[in-house]
Amino acid sequence: MVTGEFYTTIDDKGRILIPARLRSALATEALYVTRGLETCLWLMVPHDFETLKDTIISTTSSMFDRKLRILQRGMIAPAQLCDFDKVGRVNIPISLRESVGLSTKEESVLLGTGHYLELWNKSTYEAYLSESMDEFLDAAQSLSQMMERQR
């Protein structure tokens, strides 16, 4: 399980340093980087990405399902396997960086969200948090009700 909120900067070569605590929790030498939801990138261990890919592309009939084609084009097609370098950095491909507004030498936010990481442009992430506060509070209320039912 990977959790935490880390501020990082993408260097001139398009790399970000994955904090040691996250690297040890991920226990992998490479991560798939792909488009996520809400204007961020997802960084996933190969096994989890393969599970996602296999779920989206479960059969050849998936190419006839409009929603699955959209997921294939948005998440599976742009995905790239990126190796860690000796110091724990991962190269974030320029096409993926540009698709979510990430720039070199600009502060970014790396989130550990349980089974994968999210990489956000810092100002985009802050705006998202502000804009989604009402939904966050609604979700917290739903969670409270769910927990009450489990008692």
Task: Explain what the structure shows.
With 151 residues, this protein is α+β, with helices and mostly antiparallel strands. The protein has one domain: 3-Layer(aba) Sandwich (Chemotaxis protein chec). 42% of the residues lie in helices and 27% in strands. It has six helices and eight strands; from the N terminus they run E-E-H-E-E-H-H-E-E-H-E-E-H-H. Strands 1-7-8-4-3-5 form a six-stranded antiparallel β-sheet. A hairpin with a 2-residue loop joins strand 7 and strand 8. The longest helix is centred in the last third of the chain and has 18 residues. The protein is globular and about 50 Å long. It starts with a strand and ends with a helix.
What secondary-structure arrangement, pairings included, does this model have?
Elements: E1 2-9, E2 15-17, H1 20-26, E3 30-35, E4 41-44, H2 46-56, H3 66-76, E5 80-83, E6 89-91, H4 94-99, E7 107-114, E8 117-121, H5 122-131, H6 133-150
Antiparallel strand pairs: 1-7, 2-6, 3-4, 3-5, 4-8, 7-8
The SSE string, one letter per element, is EEHEEHHEEHEEHH
Please report the distance between the alpha carbons of the first and last residues. 26 Å
DSSP strand tally: 8
Estimate the helix proportion, in percent. 40-55%
Highest-level CATH class: Alpha Beta
CATH-derived topology: Chemotaxis protein chec
Query: What low-confidence regions span 5 or more consecutive residues with pLDDT below 50?
Result: none
Regarding quaternary structure, how should these chains be classified?
A: single chain
The structural domain count equals 1
Number of helices: 6
Radius of gyration: 17 Å
Largest sheet: 6 strands, antiparallel
Task: Report the sheet-strand fraction.
Answer: 25-35%
Looking at CATH, the homologous superfamily is Transcriptional regulator MraZ domain
